[in-house]
Design brief:
- Helix 1 (27-33) packs across helix 2 (38-59), helix 2 (38-59) packs parallel to helix 3 and helix 3 (78-101) packs parallel to helix 4 (118-131).
- This protein has one domain (16-233): Decaprenyl diphosphate synthase-like (Undecaprenyl pyrophosphate synthetase), CATH 3.40.1180.10.
- It contains seven helices and six strands.
- It has 243 residues and is of the alpha/beta class.
- Strand 3, helix 4 (118-131) and strand 4 (137-145) form a beta-alpha-beta unit.
- It has a six-stranded parallel β-sheet, with helices on both faces.
- Bound molecules: 3-methylbut-3-enyl trihydrogen diphosphate (2 copies) and magnesium ion.
- One 3-methylbut-3-enyl trihydrogen diphosphate is lined by residues 24-29, 69, 73, 84, 192.
Length: 243
């Protein structure tokens, strides 16, 4: 592992979130502010993604879920959608070896439907295969992901299994989500000052703490992740009970 551990001492190492979700938002605005096409903002987000991974690794975070493309993002202009498909495919190819060297296991949440180009699916499979035996941290790319789609897919699988209605409970539903072994996110960070879930981890984030930094995703760095963790550690989680 080549990641230097320079995270601030104020972070309590015994209460680091096990799973952090990131809604990587604000790429288009970042580009517009610079008079650039929106797609340049997506490209600039790659550095932020790698830095966020390093920041999470430095603290021993076990799962990092990154929202890269939502089931609703198909509504964008075809050129932007095409760019995002190609960009995510090439990003995986460019970054998989260094992520592998860092002990990161790459997995995906989302629908592998006909809209996702075959070349993208192939890169996803190759990245998963290459890193399958890593155990330092899981980087879960939420790609063609929607929380409603995930729950719908789980319900379909449950109904298809023929289980009786009385046997359906929280646990059974969780077992049919994209990653039954994935711990619920403790912390969800959404950049760019937008305060909504946009269909991200709807089931899993039931008791997540949310932090909304103003920074636009391409400017996000590990220090911003650490600041979000510091804010998280000041929260009191009650899970509906009393403290
Ligand atoms: C997030 O940035 C990236 C994706 C949704 C793929 P946006 O493209 O949503 O950027 P803004 O929100 O328009 O600034
Ligand atoms: C959420 O951001 C999806 C991703 C970051 C991939 P959006 O920019 O698509 O969400 P809305 O449309 O502002 O809610
Ligand atoms: Mg956005």
């Amino acid at each position: 592992m080549v990641v230097p551990d320079t995270a601030p001492r104020v972070i309590d190492r015994t209460r680091v979130p096990v799973h952090i979700g990131c809604v990587m938002d604000g790429n288009g605005r970042w580009a517009s502010q610079r008079g650039l096409p929106r797609t340049d903002g997506h490209a600039a987000g790659e550095v932020a993604l790698v830095d966020a991974v390093d920041g999470a690794l430095a603290l021993g975070v076990k799962w990092l879920t990154l929202y890269a493309f939502s089931t609703e993002n198909w509504r964008r202009p075809v050129d932007e959608v095409r760019f995002l498909m190609n960009f995510n495919r090439s990003l995986l190819r460019r970054r998989r070896d260094e992520l592998n060297d860092k002990g990161v296991r790459i997995v995906f949440s989302g629908r592998r439907d006909w809209r996702v180009p075959r070349g993208v699916l192939r890169q996803m499979d190759e990245a998963m295969e290459l890193t399958a035996h890593n155990s330092t941290m899981v980087m879960n790319m939420a790609f063609n992901y929607g929380g409603r789609a995930e729950i719908t897919d789980a319900v379909r699988a449950i109904v298809a299994s023929g289980v009786s209605a009385a046997k359906v409970d929280d646990k059974l539903i969780a077992q049919h989500l994209y990653h039954p072994d994935m711990p619920d996110p403790d912390l969800v960070v959404r950049t760019s000052g937008e305060h909504r879930t946009s269909n991200f981890l709807l089931w899993e984030a039931a008791y997540a703490e949310y932090v909304f930094p103003e920074v636009l995703w391409p400017d996000f760095r590990k220090e911003d992740l650490w600041a979000a963790i510091i804010e998280y550690q000041q929260r009191q989680r009650r899970y509906g009970g009393l403290s």
